[in-house]
Amino acid sequence: MAHSGRHQDSDDIVARKLTALAHPIRLAAIRQLAAAGPAGMAAGRLGEHLDVAPNALTFHLQKLATAGLVESQREGQFVYYRAVFDALLALTDHLVGACCSETEERCGPRCPTLRDQ
Amino acid sequence: MAHSGRHQDSDDIVARKLTALAHPIRLAAIRQLAAAGPAGMAAGRLGEHLDVAPNALTFHLQKLATAGLVESQREGQFVYYRAVFDALLALTDHLVGACCSETEERCGPRCPTLRDQ
DNA sequence: TAGTTATTTCAATAATAGATGAATTGTTGA
DNA sequence: TCAACAATTCATCTATTATTGAAATAACTA
After folding, report:
1. Interface test with A, best of B92, B93, B104 (most A CBs within 10 A)
2. For the residues A47-55, what does the mean pLDDT come to?
């Protein structure tokens, strides 16, 4: 009995991604990067928009990068960061999945189960 | 310049909710409660499913409750917890909103902007 | 009321995350 | 090569979060 209702592996990974998002600065950063689209945005410019010191920004962007939510690429003097949309969408789908049981749909058009099958 | 791209207030609140979710046990708990539906589930039974000690479970459930993601109600000897679906959905909508800029829709049917307007 | 189950509280400790300032590395252009 | 800019690394300190075991509160049942 009590064969743990935990998706041990998947919950750990998802928790890590949520931890990465769960900070006001990082939330603002990902929003800004999302708005910037696939081209991304240089770290410095991002820092200006968010009013965050360069070293602090690096700290937070690394958390997002480790979680796979952003990618970076050096271009000359600048380092461009961009949002990884697939990862973001997968994450939201996972959360929405928690709203629906096997028998009940509660999240309407958001629902990945409805969409995929 | 640099009029901070941060939604100071809203990002703080969302970050708090994400922090509440960002733990393997709490993630498993909310999923289980979501599956249990509006009726909710007694703390003890939840603890068995998740294989978590009672005091630890209380600790984590309180975090979720403080964030408004679960509610509880004593019924005799038992305390029933249930997911607050509205809060969960609002949270996912907020995250999905980060996927879309003012000009680009990237999240398809998930998108709250598409849905609401 | 005594015993049992359910849940929470408390206290101590360990682990992690965040903020800050100084120093460092990489790149460009004079 | 030197000065300026972009970004990262490092070291330190503080604060928060998580884990644990023991004790306390609440409700039910015999």
Report:
1. B92
2. 97
